[in-house]
Amino acid sequence: MVRIYLSIRIKILLLFCLRLFKNYHFGLGLESFKTWTYWVFAGTQSFSFPGVQRLLQPKAGSSNIEKAAAAQTMTIKDSVVEWAKSDNRRLLHVVYRVGDLDKTIKFYTECLGMKLLRKRDIPEEKYTNAFLGYGPEDSHFVVELTYNYGVDKYDIGTGFGHFGIAVEDVQKVVDIVKAKGGKVSREPGPVKGGKSIIAFVEDPDGYKFELIQRGPTPEPFCQVMLRVGDLERAVTFYEKAFGMKLLRMRDNPEQKYTLAMVGYGEEEQKITVLELTYNYGVTEYTKGNGYAQIAVGTDDVYKTAAAVREAGGTIVREPGPLPILNTKITACLDPDGWKSVFVDNVDLAKELE
Ligand SMILES: N[C@@H](CCC(=O)N[C@@H](CS)C(=O)NCC(=O)O)C(=O)O
C-alpha cells in the first residue's frame, strides 16, 4: 500500500514539473544546456558566464500545428547534429599565405624541426603549395603554405593568435631560433597565470608559434589559436556543427581572458586542438589576408554542410567535387567568420597516394 502511495506521489510530482516547464525551453537547446552545465562545473578557476540569463526563455508558438512542426524540425536537426559527432573527423591541416616559401621552409625545418612533406606548383593559377609537419599527412596535422607568385607580404590581422608546438625543451628550441637569426618575441618561462613553460617565436612572415614544454607526444603540432568575440557561441558551434568536444576551459581573470580547447579526441596532450580565446570585452578582430583556414576530414561533405547550416553556420562553398582534382569539399564560416574546409576522407586518401 505504502509503495503504491509513494509511486503515485512521485508521478504527481513529475507531472507537476512537466507542467511547470511546459511553456519554457532551455534557451539554446539541450546541447547548450549540457555545455552550460559543463562550463559551470568543469571550469578550472573562478568562472562566471554572461550567457546564463538566457537559460529560461518563453517558448515561441503554442498551437498544436506549430508544436508538431517544431518537434519535426528538432528531430531532423538533432539527427544531422548527432551524425556530425559520429562522423570520421580529424583536423588535417591549416592553410596560410607566406611571402617567401624557401625562407619559411628553412625556418620550419631548421628551427622548429618539421619535415617538408610535399610541394606542388600550380603555374596556371600562379601559386605554389608546400606541406610541412611532424609526420605523414595521413596521420598528422600539418601546415599547407601558399605562395602566390609575386606577393611577398601579408597582413596577419588581429584575430589570428598562434600555432602551438609541443617541445621537450623550450629553451633549446629558443636557442636554435636565436642562432639562426629568428625572432623570439617572448623568452622561455611560466605562462602568465599558470605553470606551463612557454615561449613565443615568430616565423619570417610574423606568424607566432607558441612553444609549449611537454613530454614526448604523438602530435607535436598541438594548437591553432583563434580569437573569438563570444566564447559560448563559438564553443556551441564547434560542438554542434563540427562534432568537436570541449576538452578544457581556463579562465584567467588577471590577464582578462578565457580560453576553450575544442577538438576530436579525448586527450588534449595527444591531439591537435583549436584553442578559442575570448579577451574580456573584445568582440571584433581583423582577419587580414594571411591566415586562410583549417581543413577537416569527413566521410560526407553533403551531410556536413547540412549540419553546419542547422548549427547556424554559413556555407560559403556548396558541397561537391573540385574541378580537375575531383576531391569533394565544402567550406563554411563559424560565427566569428573563421573559415574551415571539410574534405572527403576517401578522396583525400586517393590524392595523397
Ligand atoms: N590576450 C591574449 C590572451 C591569450 C593568452 O594570453 N594566452 C597565453 C598563452 S595560453 C599567452 O599568450 N600568455 C603570454 C605570456 O604568458 O607571456 C591573446 O589574445 O593572445
Automatic annotation (TrEMBL):
Primary enzyme class: lyase
One Pfam family here: Glyoxalase
Keyword vocabulary terms for this entry: Lyase, Metal-binding, Signal, Zinc
Domain VOC: 90-214, 220-345
Domain of life: Eukaryota
Cofactor(s) needed for function: Zn(2+)
This enzyme's EC code(s): 4.4.1.5
Signal peptide annotation: 1-29
Reaction equations catalysed: (R)-S-lactoylglutathione = methylglyoxal + glutathione
Pathway(s) where this gene product acts: Secondary metabolite metabolism; methylglyoxal degradation; (R)-lactate from methylglyoxal: step 1/2
Family per record: Belongs to the glyoxalase I family.
NCBIfam families linked: glyox_I
Protein's job: Catalyzes the conversion of hemimercaptal, formed from methylglyoxal and glutathione, to S-lactoylglutathione.
Protein name as catalogued: Lactoylglutathione lyase
Taxonomic source organism: Sphagnum jensenii
Lineage: Eukaryota, Viridiplantae, Streptophyta, Embryophyta, Bryophyta
